Amino acid sequence: MSHTHGNKKLLARVRRMKGQVEALEKALEGGSDCGAVLQQIAAVRGAANGLMNEVLESHIREHLGSHVVSEEERQADLEQVLTVLRSYLK
User: Fold this and answer.
1) Which pairs with CB-CB distance under 8 Å and at least 24 residues apart come from 77-82?
2) Which CATH class is domain 8-88?
């Protein structure tokens, strides 16, 4: 089972993001001025970055920092993290 399963802090972040995205949708539908829309987009982006940082740090600590996993598992996890980071940073 994933170490993120049932993590209340992560779920709270996602729910906050959901609210921000819904507010953005309403702003776009309601014809809000550009400044309000840009601010909402920045809030969504910040929330996504915070979520990514938290999950990534947890993953690194759990999978790459653990002395319990084999070298092969560690290398596979490292490649997975690098692939995700490359995609995220595009």
Assistant:
1) 81/56
2) mainly alpha
